[in-house]
């Protein structure tokens, strides 16, 4: 019986000789010259581009324009086509190599800038340097409490490592895993500068190891398989030290919440992948099955999200809270309230910190480019000294409280301090210091550019040696001395050389210890990416992990 359905036209065979030789089964009425050229280039191998292949039939070169089928071009069954391979365009090759080299150089320079900026920020926000910004970098634990451990060098190294790690996580979120891997290695180097006994107490280092292996996995870098296993072992042991066995300590700190569940999904997935490629199918199945079970626990019901969104919470915040509390509505609300209180408290602390930094700027910098130590200043004010006078004493004495106390308690030196403050106030009021205060103003302007969200910095009180004071009336003692013109003139005559030497010494010290050049753009980029959110590291989107788990379990089942 004849069928009503039309069968597809039979494919004809043509022979290709030359650059690639062989027979091809083609539909002459459907295939075009570009299609044939692309197929010959593919079969030739070696990454040959189709535009390098020329096709000759019947003594003429087959053209792409106008587009036509092979049948229209005159080819028939068993036609013989000659293929030739043109030499690559040397200019294009050189241009491509130059572009690749330029891109690599730019990437390397950016990594150097990242390292230098992180180093400068950590140095400046640890050793008491004069603040060029209206923020401060502090270390906090998961409850938001400030942490001080180890030496100054340890704190600098930890701050530097955390800034670089945060930058790498930003790259990971943007699917820029190759760039992230380079920055993660830099963060690992920064952590290595810290005392190992200190950093083994926290989970930042094992999370760094986990992120590095995740980049290996996404980049499909099989060459790192062996080192990936070693890094995962370090991550596993590091989590056990910081979180406790079966995360018991972590659960206690987090009020029984499962905030770390997503981390272990990723960890067990990667352990299963490494075991699979090493031929250990039993270990692979065990890790992947455990990862899949945890992954299912992170699938939040839409109904629960709707309930929290109905209370006024955003979708992302609601979903995160539900994942970390096992879908418990009341616990999720408690967590969201705690986070809101932390944010409000942080805003208040930031305002107080900015106020303190602005006050520090009024007093200027020490000869070694350090800011006035506000704690020592409060101590001197507590025992009865006027704040501006005590600040100037600390500035001159390089924040040495004992030396500052000697200056304040010595009547003669105290008078010199008062006259210096009064003299600067007069210069500011008469505008005589405007031409020589450009360096201070420039520094303040740069600081305001670091965080554009904050108010501009007032540079009207900048003076040549970095010190400044308000345009309010000075000390009553100074006012009394100012009313007695003869006494002031006599004192100035006697102590003029000493005061001048003190000013010149301070200015000379500043010239001998100039502040290092800043990469403001890179420092701003690093600082703006610091969220201060203690739970942000545990809030991982595991959708890619879920797909990978299913893929490798399917491979195991197929092998079985």
TrEMBL record:
Biased composition (Polar residues): 450-464
Gene3D superfamilies, sorted: DNA helicase RuvA subunit, C-terminal domain
A Gene Ontology BP annotation from the UniProt entry: regulation of ubiquitin-dependent protein catabolic process
Chain ranges of the UBA domain: 299-339, 371-411
GO MF annotation list: polyubiquitin modification-dependent protein binding
Ranges annotated as biased composition (Low complexity): 435-449
SMART domains reported in the protein's UniProt record: UBA
Region (Disordered): 427-470, 495-520
Biased composition (Acidic residues): 500-512
InterPro entries (alphabetical): NUB1, UBA, UBA-like_sf, Ubiquitin-like_dom, Ubiquitin-like_domsf
Pfam families membership: UBA
Residues covered by the Ubiquitin-like domain: 32-81
Protein name, entry field: UBA domain-containing protein
């Amino acid at each position: 019986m004849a069928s009503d359905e039309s069968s597809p036209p039979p494919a004809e065979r043509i022979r290709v000789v030359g650059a690639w030789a062989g027979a091809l089964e083609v539909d002459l009425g459907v295939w075009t010259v570009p299609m044939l050229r692309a197929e010959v280039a593919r079969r030739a191998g070696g990454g040959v581009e189709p535009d390098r292949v020329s096709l000759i039939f019947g003594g003429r070169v087959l053209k792409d324009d106008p587009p036509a089928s092979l049948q229209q071009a005159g080819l028939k069954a068993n036609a013989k086509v000659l293929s030739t391979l043109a030499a690559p365009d040397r200019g294009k090759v050189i241009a491509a190599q130059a572009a690749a080299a330029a891109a690599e150089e730019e990437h390397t320079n950016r990594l150097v800038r990242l390292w230098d900026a992180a180093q400068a920020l950590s140095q400046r926000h640890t050793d008491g340097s004069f603040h060029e910004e209206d923020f401060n970098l502090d270390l906090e634990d998961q409850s938001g409490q400030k942490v001080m451990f180890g030496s100054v060098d340890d704190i600098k190294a930890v701050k530097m490592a955390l800034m670089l790690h945060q930058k790498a996580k930003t790259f990971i979120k943007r699917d820029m895993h190759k760039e992230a891997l380079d920055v993660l290695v830099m963060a690992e180097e920064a952590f290595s500068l810290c005392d190992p006994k200190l950093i083994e107490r926290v989970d930042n280092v094992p999370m760094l190891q986990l992120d590095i292996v995740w980049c290996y996995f996404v980049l499909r870098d099989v060459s790192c398989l062996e080192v990936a296993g070693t890094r995962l072992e370090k991550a596993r042991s590091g989590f056990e030290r910081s979180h406790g066995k079966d995360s018991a300590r972590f659960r206690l700190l987090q009020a029984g919440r499962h905030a770390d569940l997503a981390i272990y999904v990723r960890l067990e997935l990667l352990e299963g992948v490494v075991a699979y490629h090493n031929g250990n199918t039993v270990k692979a199945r065990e890790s992947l099955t455990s990862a899949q079970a945890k992954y299912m626990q992170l699938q939040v019901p839409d109904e629960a999200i709707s309930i929290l969104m109905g209370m006024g919470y955003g979708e992302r915040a609601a979903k995160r809270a539900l994942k970390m509390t096992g879908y418990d509505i009341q616990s999720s609300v408690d967590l969201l309230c705690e986070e809101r209180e932390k944010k409000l408290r942080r805003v208040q602390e930031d305002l107080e910190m900015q106020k303190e930094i602005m006050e520090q700027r009024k007093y200027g910098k020490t000869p070694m480019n350090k800011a006035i130590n506000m704690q020592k200043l409060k101590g001197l004010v507590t025992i009865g000294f006027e704040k501006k006078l005590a600040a100037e004493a600390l500035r001159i004495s390089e924040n040495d409280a004992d030396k500052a106390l000697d200056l304040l308690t010595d009547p003669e030196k105290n008078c010199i301090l008062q006259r210096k403050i009064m003299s600067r106030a007069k210069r500011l009021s008469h505008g005589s210091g405007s031409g020589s205060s450009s360096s201070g103003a420039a520094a303040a302007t740069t600081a305001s550019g670091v965080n554009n969200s904050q108010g501009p910095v007032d540079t009207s009180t900048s003076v040549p040696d970095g010190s400044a004071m308000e345009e309010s009336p000075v000390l009553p003692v100074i006012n009394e001395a100012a009313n007695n013109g003869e006494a002031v003139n006599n004192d100035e005559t006697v102590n003029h050389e000493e005061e001048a030497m003190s000013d010149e010494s301070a200015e000379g010290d500043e010239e001998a210890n100039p502040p290092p050049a800043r990469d403001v753009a890179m420092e701003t980029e690093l600082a703006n990416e610091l969220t201060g959110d203690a739970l942000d590291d545990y809030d991982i989107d595991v959708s890619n992990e879920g797909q990978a788990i299913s893929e490798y379990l399917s491979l195991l089942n197929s092998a079985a």
